[in-house]
Amino acid sequence: MTSFNFDVITLFPKAFESINNLGVITKALDKNIINLHLHDLRDFGEGSYRQVDDKPYGGGAGMVLKPEPIYKAHDSVNKFPNNKTLLMTPQGKVLKQNDLLRWTNLDQLIIICGQYEGFDERVRCLADEEISLGDYVLSGGEIPAMSIVNGLSRLLPGVLGDSESLKDESHNNHLLEYPQYTRPAIFKDMKVPDILVSGNHNEIKAWRKKQMFIRTLERRKDLVKEDQIQEFPNIKET
Ligand code: SAH
Fold first, then answer.
1. For tag attachment on the chain, is the N or C end more exposed, with fewer CB atoms within 10 Å?
2. Of all protein residues, whose CA lies closest to atom 22 belonging to ligand 1?
3. Is residue 238 part of a domain?
4. What is the mean pLDDT of each run of 10 residues along the chain (238 residues)?
5. 169 C-alpha to center of ligand 1: Å?
């Protein structure tokens, strides 16, 4: 089996050390299901100071990442046939589970992390897609990049112990997962629903499906598709 390759261009490669200690991702790295190549932007900086940023044209606060080091770093990446370059930016498309799913068909994601005030506008030409982690501003693209490495890796065959767990989980098929319980059956006067201890697998399946709709309508109605609502006409919004 060929590995999925992540190539991350970053000023803070050390930030990615923590990814090595994250359960299933450690396993994915150990089993060579994924490869993680870190490219230190500083190595592509200019002059004896290895300069990677400069003041913005037109004035204003902070520093902007220069285009040349990012282009050089991107050029230096060993490209696999089926690759995409992602630019981490709060101005991008907000990341969805579906994005992670469709990228699993690639051989490689090259991820560019910004820092400071962001990057020179001309860096955008390198990107196939511009991706945001959400509608808030972080200090750098490293946490968004780690989220992508983490979220995509667990979708690859052989990473999760039981791939069944991907089937009903939240954000698959536009629904949130049903409520989950484990032992004890009663905890602080809160009881596990009778149906789950009934042993009737068909009824449990039906209950769970209904719960997924109720949950999603209650919490994230924006996720539910019109035809899914028709499938469950008797579920009232609360
Ligand atoms: N001045 C920029 C924000 C810069 S934040 C603006 O207003 O658009 C510095 C860097 O952090 C960005 O270049 C980007 O790589 C990363 N970053 C910050 N928030 C992010 C988010 N929500 N999603 C993805 N990347 C983000």
1. C
2. 90
3. no
4. 94 92 88 97 97 98 97 98 98 98 98 98 98 98 97 94 83 93 98 97 97 96 85 60
5. 29
